[in-house]
Amino acid sequence: MSDDMDFEEGGAVKKFMFVNRKAPYGTVYALEGLEVVLISAAFDQDVSLAFVDDGVFQLVKGQKTDGVEMKNFSPTYRALEGYDIEKLYVERESMEARGLTEDDLLVDVQIMSAAEMGDMMAQQDVVISF
Amino acid sequence: MLHIVNKSPFDTGSLASVLRVAKKDGGAVLLIEDGVYAAVKNSATEASLKAAGMPVYVLQADADARGLQSRLMDGVNMVDYGGFVDLVAGHDNVQSWL
Fold first, then answer.
1. pLDDT in tens, A62-111
2. Is A93 within 8 Å of A113 (Cβ atoms)?
3. What is the pTM of this model?
4. Do B13 and A53 touch (CB under 8 A)?
5. Which of B15, B18, B21 is the best residue to mutate to test the A interface, defined by the most A CB atoms within 10 Å of its own CB?
6. What domains does chain B contain, in order, with CATH numbers?
7. How far apart, in whole angstroms, are the C-alpha atoms of residue A74 and residue A114?
């Protein structure tokens, strides 16, 4: 295959944000979103993940899915760091409304207010919602 | 940022989340598909849209399809498909809320 099929080196890096707003197992959105995030890691873009509304439940510690015969994909969030995806943002209002604190989350995140989350979204080149 | 909502506010919380999170400065809301129900006059959501602090747009074809032509609140801006494109092109970025 010729070189011109390669992705351009040093091309523009865009800011991508993936917004997660669904709980993990009731629908397939959370898992599919995570797959897309992992794919995006291959393209050396500026990737961040936002957790809003029920999306916060994706990060709860101690998920155990044997009984429902579904894949527990929660450990994957801890692996994102290895793909240079380190910007994980959680909206405080959503977290607190669900009775959760930062200690309940299985990965280090940056907690921010709704207003700060809105500012963060407005700065992105591309926002994809799951 | 243009925030697009396509679900009824009586069915899902996406509009409420937009109104909570969205940055007002430079922000706008576009209601399409079942999202247009949020703009019905005298509905439970009318006041929250009025207080959105951002311009609110409604896709005419979706409102018409649902019989809402003369049932929408004052203060919303009706757009056709061309207007939809103009809104997307006229904002720095777009978020389609699921």
1. 999 988 889 999 999 999 999 999 999 999 999 999 999 999 999 999 99
2. yes
3. 0.85
4. yes
5. B21
6. 2-97 (3.40.1260.10)
7. 24
